[in-house]
Amino acid sequence: MTIPADDVVVPERVRAIAGHAEVVPVWRNELGGLTFRAGAFFIKWGPRHKEASMADEAKRLAWAARWTPVPEVRDHGETDDEEWLVTTALEAESAVSRRWIAEPETAVRAIGSGLRALHEALPVEECPFDWSVPTRILRARERGIVLPAELRDPPPVDRLVVCHGDACAPNTLVSDEGRWAAHVDFGSLGVADRWADIAVATMSLEWNYGPGWEPTFYEAYGVDPDPDRVPYYRALWNAM
Fold it and tell me: Which residues act catalytically here (predicted)?
């Protein structure tokens, strides 16, 4: 995921949704999706993919909003070729905005404490969504991905939580005061071992802030590194 250049082509669908509001590109993902700021809203747009569904994300956001801060869904839709999701803008910035890239310790602490807060807030027993290893392996197989044999036998579950599903640094929003404020990008939210999130969150720190920030994350989350679960869940993420 990257911040797109200013010369990105704005899709016709996005211009139609934005109306007279200025459209500013803010994010691009590896699947060809784009996110734009349009006044008081964010418009997430992309080509249809088997790997992700904005309709599914809208359902997950609506469910999670009962317990944790997330953007409000205002609209979503799809055609045979494209899909889109419109959410309200929150008074916070991504943990990888220019400001927080320049203040990595504050950002990393917000990511760690925010992920712990998310895991504590969302009720496992009421969650209708699953992100367990068997479910992820099945979805990978449906997309034609054959995982290595060693990834089909996960470590025992440490603690079941409702996982974010893409806990990389950009998906934590940080307040002006430098504290966790909300989360975004819930397309894969579901019940799983908390290490499925922790492993990916810590892996993303070096991508965004450079090496050496994992201890700060673990302190903020309130857990010691797991020498078995971290490498397993990172390998599973990278294989898919």
Answer: 166
